[in-house]
From TrEMBL:
Gene Ontology annotations of biological process type: p-aminobenzoyl-glutamate transmembrane transport
GO MF annotation: an example: secondary active p-aminobenzoyl-glutamate transmembrane transporter activity
Lineage: Bacteria, Bacillati, Bacillota, Bacilli, Lactobacillales
Pfam families documented for this protein: ABG_transport
Protein name (database record): Aminobenzoyl-glutamate transporter
Annotated InterPro entries: AbgT
Length: 511
């Protein structure tokens, strides 16, 4: 073991990686965790564990009881739902469909040639900041960043002669750690604001937030997280990873005339495709626009959350075809299919992992253990009787911890909003501030939660560049981002609070 590896294994982060990587294979680990959930659910069900909270959707108090998987009904559920848990695992179809398109672009050489063309003489900090920024901005299109920006982040760093895992980590930090930040108002804003408004209304509070309630703060957050993410990448993560010694070796040779012609043709196809998609999405009455109840007008939010996947597939396939035909990589239909087939062959491990991850996440949801944990955490915070800024900080800590166990931002907020939004309102804290505190906590700890839906996919992408990468590698690498994002983002919120800066148009911090 050389000096660099010795240094990497030292300290807290080295300990996290060593311990994490000594855990069983991720597939086996998910099986063990699922078994633990089954046992805990049996104990919780036998003891009658339950919680009560106000359900904003129903407008009344709801009692949630732990459901045992060791009962006759629970055992039937495990067997009867196994296939649906797998096929309904949220990231599975998204990842596979997108990778079909990416596979064509990668197999033909389009991605490699594009990166060689774009990455010459790019300063290291600017490259890191660009990857983090692209990840943050990608959340305007829901989960697309997970399957497009993160693997591209690794390729971009590799193409620049840098460690691909550092690029993957920077992209993951932007996409997931900065999930709530953006320069634009997106579908997530509409969802969380609607949930909060429903919670307020159900509690008899005549107050309604707009979809732009957190916009000013989110714009500032985008700039802050981009800088922080780039600094963490360049000053901590990449030095700790050291020199890349894996099997992936990008081609640094200059592009040939045929390759340059291929890039030109691919760019022409890309521009034509972008224009067509723009016509379908943006003009009033366009085919991809539909009425958005949250906005009270037409928008493309429904398309962004549901229909964009096929658009991303074509975004890679069409330029990939143009490039492949030009350079002679694609000579017939068999060559076209071969590019997609090779991409799918590398996803075998992910498919196996997705089956067991889908079971674990479903068991956790079915047993109500996540809801019980969330409500119990909220009750604990309420019992401390904090007020003002200390209460907001306590809420951030509780929400960040709960986020480790429940990945969905909207699902957690549907549980926490009816508890905290009215409670903090009655303590003179504006709902806009409660919402932004939740979003800061919810985003910051995403990247270190093995129960995040996309965590198995991140692990598989990492193993493309480092076959020894395990859960410990991912968590120890991303922990620095999580800590830095949570700390600096919270400090930004404190500054916002102390100087009473509006969070959005007409959105104050206190009532």
């Amino acid at each position: 073991m050389n000096e660099l590896e010795n240094q990497k294994n030292k300290g807290f982060f080295g300990w996290i990686e060593r311990v994490g990587n000594k855990l069983p294979d991720p597939v086996v680990l998910f099986i063990i965790l699922a078994a633990i959930v089954v046992v805990i659910s049996g104990i919780a069900g036998a003891t009658g564990l339950s919680v009560e909270y106000f359900d904003a959707a129903e407008g009344e108090n709801t009692t949630v009881e732990a459901v045992s998987l060791l009962s006759a009904e629970g055992l039937n559920h495990m067997f009867n739902s196994a296939v649906d848990n797998f096929t309904g695992f949220a990231p599975l179809g998204t990842v596979l469909v997108t990778m079909l398109g990416v596979g064509v672009a990668e197999w033909t050489g389009l991605i490699a040639s594009t990166l060689k063309r774009l990455l010459s003489n790019v300063p290291a900090f600017l490259l890191s900041a660009s990857v983090v920024f692209a990840g943050i901005i990608s959340n305007i299109a829901s989960d697309v960043g997970y399957i497009v920006i993160i693997p591209l982040g690794a390729l971009i760093f590799a193409g620049a002669g840098r460690h691909p895992l550092a690029g993957l980590a920077a992209a993951f930090a932007g996409v997931s750690g900065g999930f709530s930040a953006n320069l634009l108002v997106g579908p997530l804003d509409a969802i969380v604001v609607e949930i909060a408004n429903e919670a307020l209304s159900s509690a008899g509070i005549n107050y309604e937030m707009s979809i732009t309630a957190n916009w000013y703060f989110m714009v500032a957050s985008t700039i802050l997280l981009t800088i922080v993410g780039a600094l963490v990448t360049d000053k901590f993560v990449e030095p700790r990873l050291g020199e890349y010694k894996g099997d992936y070796r990008p081609d640094f040779e200059s592009l040939s005339k045929v390759e340059l012609k291929g890039l030109r043709n691919a760019l022409i196809v890309l521009v034509v495709y972008a224009v067509i998609m723009g016509i379908l999405m943006f003009p009033q009455g366009a085919l991809f626009r539909s009425y958005d109840e949250a906005l009270g007008t037409e928008s493309i939010n429904n398309f962004l959350s549901s229909g964009l996947l096929l658009g991303i597939f074509l975004l890679f396939v069409l330029p990939g075809l143009a490039y492949g035909i030009t350079v002679g990589k694609i000579k017939n239909s068999s060559d076209f299919v071969k590019g997609m087939s090779e991409s799918m062959s590398s996803m075998g491990n992910y498919i196996v992992l997705a089956f067991f991850a889908g079971q674990l996440i479903n068991y956790f949801e079915y047993t109500n253990l996540g809801t019980i944990l969330s409500v119990s955490g909220a009750d604990l915070l309420e019992s401390i009787h904090l007020t003002g800024l200390p209460l907001i900080l306590g809420f951030i800590v509780v929400s960040g911890f709960i986020n480790l166990f429940i990945g969905s931002a909207s699902a957690k907020w549907a549980i926490l909003a009816p508890i905290f939004t009215p409670m903090l309102y009655n303590l003179n804290i504006a709902p806009e501030l409660t919402l932004i505190a939740y979003r800061v906590a919810d985003s910051s700890t995403n990247v270190i939660s093995p129960l995040l839906n996309y965590f198995p996919m991140i692990l598989i992408f990492a193993q493309r560049y480092d076959k020894k990468a395990g859960i410990g590698t991912i968590i120890s690498t991303m922990l620095a981002y999580s800590m830095a994002f949570l700390l600096t983002w919270t400090i930004l919120l404190i500054i916002w609070f102390l100087f009473s800066i509006p969070l959005g148009p007409g959105a104050g911090l206190t009532l």
